[in-house]
Amino acid sequence: MFGIGAGELITLVVLALILIGPDRLPNVATDAAKLVKRLRDIANTATAELRENLGPGFEDLEVTDLHPKKLLRKTIGNSLDEISSDINSGFSLETNKKKAQIDPDLL
Fold first, then answer.
1. pLDDT at position 39, please?
2. What pLDDT digit, counting tens, does each position of 14-56 carry?
3. Which pLDDT belongs to residue 100?
4. SS (H, E, C) 7-31
5. What is the CA radius of gyration of the chain?
6. b/e string for 1-19 if b means 16 or more Cβ within 10 A?
7. Hey, is 91 helix, strand or coil?
8. Using N-to-C axis directions, what is the helix angle for 25-54 and 6-20, rounded to 10°?
9. Which pLDDT tens digit goes with each residue over 68-106?
């Protein structure tokens, strides 16, 4: 959980009890949980609006995909994989030379 160990969590709880007090601690915890829920809802709404505005092809967009390198890999990577598989599966220069001959009637 956020890279926090058991000892650190216990220390935070004891510190919260000292600073906030046992009377107000349940209310503060409830308010913090509501804040986290509201922030999560805002992030989900923003992601949904972004997917809607980007249009088709981005239905499976994740927030982590918004990094420019990951977005390029996701959008361009599929076509690059197809090209590399075509190259590896029998692409030869000799067969393409035969296909790309100039029509003698055009000369």
1. 94
2. 898 898 888 888 898 899 999 999 999 998 898 888 878 877 7
3. 56
4. HHHHHHHHHHHHHHCCCCHHHHHHH
5. 28
6. eeeeeeeeeeeeeeeeeee
7. coil
8. 120
9. 777 677 667 666 666 666 666 655 555 555 555 666 676
Q: At 28, list the tokens.
A: 């503060």
| Residue 102 tokens, joined | 């100039």
Rounded to 5 degrees, what angle do the CA atoms 50, 1, 15 make?
115
Q: What are the distances in angstroms from CA 27 to CA 9, 10, 15, 22?
A: 19, 19, 16, 10
Closest CA to 75 of 51, 99, 58, 92: 58
What is the length of the chain? 107
Q: With contact defined as beta carbons under 8 Å apart, do 84 and 76 qualify?
A: no
